Amino acid sequence: MKLLLVEDDAMIGRALLDALRAEGYALNWVRDGRLAADTLATEPYDLVLLDLGLPGRDGLEVLRGLRQRGSAVPVLVATARDAVGDRVAGLDAGADDYIAKPFDIDELLARIRALLRRSAGRAGPLIVHQGLTLNPATREAVLNGEPLHLSAREWAVLEPMVQRPGAVFSRAQLEEKLYGWKDEVSSNAVEVYVHGLRRKLGSDFIKTVRGLGYVVPRE
After folding, report:
1. pTM to 2 decimals?
2. Are residues 152 and 169 in the same domain?
3. Percent of the chain whose predicted confidence (pLDDT) is above 70
4. Helical (H) or strand (E) element with 213
5. How many domains does the chain fold into?
6. What pLDDT is recorded for position 99?
7. Whole domain around residue 175: which residue ranges?
8. Which neighbouring-strand residues pair with 213?
9. What is the full DSSP assignment across 154-202?
10. DSSP letters along 88-146, please?
11. Maximal CA-CA distance, the chain
């Protein structure tokens, strides 16, 4: 999943960057409302974590502009503006959820997971395919009834493919799941993680489509 963090506070931004990347999310971070609006107009994201008190352009303006363009990307507002009127204004502007600072990181992560599940059209938390069960809420994996350990980046590669069996993912698409801006991407990173997943899941669980990428077959 690729997230955009819009936060002007350097300390908070760095803490969130580290926490979210540790959970396996690809994350881009901008600190200015005007840059956030420009980024959202040109880059696709799975979720936006948005502060309101931003330089350049207020977060509510960024949110309204996003919704006026017809974007349905989930937006979680995380801000120090915690009065009832502020929460109402944020939700009325198009926010999907609202959390006041200071917040507990575990609660924030749970809210992010819930919004991502909802946007994917899954009311329930489990993804089941070919004997494999993934629980995005807990990051637990079970294969044929046995617990399966996956690293955060193995999870980041595997989850989107299991969500969409039969869909071919290019190497570039999977790299986006692993890294955000300014992260160095080694030329064989995806191949390394796919190889590790095949060792754990079986050599036929993820197929290579020559010249195109990788796919988890429907059956």
Report:
1. 0.67
2. yes
3. 94
4. strand 213-215
5. 2
6. 93
7. 127-215
8. 209
9. HHHHHHHHHHSTT--B-HHHHHHHH--TT----TTHHHHHHHHHHHHH-
10. HHHHHTT-SEEEESS--HHHHHHHHHHHHHHHTT-SSS-EEETTEEEETTTTEEEETTE
11. 55
